[in-house]
Write a structure and sequence with these properties.
homodimer; 5-stranded mixed sheet
Chain lengths: 327, 327
């Protein structure tokens, strides 16, 4: 087998507060990377300029060697055209982002939803390598996911498939950031863990002393709950155990719907409380229909914070090649 | 455009109590049909013989004109090999059903899960025609579903995708027939509506008088609850309204996960209480993220009781053609 030199692409993870750009090779290795803040108030043209500038000057890359640029954007993306239909975090609506960035850079640009891009990254270069049926669940402040089913990354009718954080797990339950009640995110998202902790402390001030002591007058956060649980505080342990059980309840549903061979967990809440994965795993073993749980693997993300840049770059290389093949 | 005569296949819907066989043409029209009981106690060989006999003598078909036989089986199917991995209703495990029936008939046989076959039928010849992203939800005694996403019918790792009846909608909720608690089926399946009605009557005998009067000492059933609701009884109306709300809560989650353009409802409980679809629809309009609900169509099944035979026949024609093309 002759070995061709790896090809290069740039992956960009574009969020409402930060931009993470990286040169990534075709084997999924991050060659160089750069971070900057997102100037949402400057409007979409400003963000295009900032990304173009970062790509040209911040990555130490010879742009003539870069075959494609992929950008993962939080929001509703029309992948074919590169139009960002709606991104609440960026305050963009119907912005032809791919076209504009391509004009600015002179390199083919591919745009995808950030979580779907990260799922692609885990699929090609991370914890989902070689799988035809696997799910990624990112549990951070919000909860998102990506679905590979029968060897394809699902997009849905308008490119919005995968919002597993907004599946109902408690009909009529806690209010969510979306119009629904009882969403998975409303129990296990970082903001929800914090809210549930506040509720528990208000309900029983005495039991909440451990959390309050650690907070020292600051706001209760998911991170603080998870640290307090790690220190053995009863209420915090209980809160995190319940969180794992809700996560497991949601996961059992997803298994029955998709019958995946592997589930990959990532995101800040999981990084802070890896025990959540064990709790969810034990819920699955006890509660899923056995044929769905037998042989199922539950793993942690391998790419973590680099999943979106690696996935965006890989997806961009892949799509540019398939477009060339169509010509 | 020249018009070729429609091609013919036989579709068989094989359940634990009845067998429904039909000659179906390539336009999805049922040409003739035949029903018989399933002799589960006679074992799998007996069922193969009964189906072969029914196909030869019960359908008035000239077998030389039949290109393929498709069978939809309740259970876990390995579609490639035609092996029934597990069918609790038929009490079969790892039975090479496709091979045996093909030997008995001398016609290519294709085996698929019954709900997936029915979904295929709605996709090609019913309420899902022309859609790339749509879901079918069958609400009968149990709750099952089929998923077409990005133009493909999902199967999952072991051919078990689509068990949407066993997605958690109330974490820690009502016991289900599966090991999980709080499944959608445990609220909206026919058996669950009956159980919830019994619970409501026991909790308030006075309010339950309408249901008890109509039952006349017989068991409460979902059908009876739905008829009593149609007659205006308060408790029965409340039970069916709650059923629609649980159905809506589950559906909202499915929309966020799959982003379909259309959802199709079928099954005996829906046929008995079409108002459930309206309730679920209004829950979706109020609770789904607007971009997922805008433009979404919610419809009733067009093929109803014929969906599995039409779908099995159509799937069989389709697979036999694609196998021939591979040669």
């Amino acid at each position: 087998m002759t070995r061709t030199p790896p090809r290069l692409a740039i992956g960009v993870d574009l969020g409402g507060t930060k931009i993470h750009a990286a040169v990534v090779d075709s084997e999924g290795t991050v060659v160089s990377s750069h971070r900057l803040g997102t100037d949402v108030e400057g409007g979409p043209s400003r963000v295009v300029e900032d990304i173009a500038h970062a790509v040209r000057t911040g990555l130490g890359a010879n742009l003539s060697e870069i075959e494609a640029v992929g950008v993962g954007v939080a929001g509703q993306i029309e992948a074919e055209s590169g139009v960002v239909r709606s991104s609440p975090n960026l305050k963009w609506t119907d912005f032809p982002f791919g076209e504009r960035l391509q004009q600015a850079l002179g390199i083919p640009v591919v745009v995808e939803n950030d979580v779907r891009a990260a799922t692609w990254g885990e699929w090609r270069h991370g914890a989902g390598r070689g799988m035809d049926d696997f799910l990624v669940l990112y549990v951070g402040t919000g909860v998102g996911g990506g679905i590979v089913s029968d060897g394809r990354l699902l997009t849905g009718d308008r490119g919005m498939a995968g919002e597993v954080g907004h599946m109902t797990v408690v009909a009529g339950g806690r209010e969510c950031t979306c119009p629904n009640r009882g969403c998975l995110e409303a129990y296990v998202g970082g903001w929800a863990i914090a809210e549930r902790a506040v509720g528990a402390v208000l309900a029983n001030h005495e039991a909440g002393r451990g959390l309050l002591d650690r907070a020292r007058g600051e706001e209760l956060t998911a991170r603080l709950v998870s640290e307090t649980a790690a220190a053995g505080d009863d209420l915090a342990v209980q809160l995190m155990d319940e969180t794992g059980r809700y996560l497991g309840a949601g996961l059992v549903g997803l298994l029955h719907i998709f019958n995946p061979a592997r589930v990959v967990f990532g995101g800040g809440v999981i990084e802070g409380s890896p025990g959540l994965v064990d709790t969810a795993d034990s819920v699955v073993r006890a509660s899923a229909i056995p044929a769905y749980a037998d042989g199922l693997e539950i793993r942690r993300s391998e790419l973590e914070g680099n999943a979106a840049v690696i996935g965006s770059a890989s997806l961009a290389l892949n799509r540019v090649v398939s477009r060339q093949n169509q010509l």
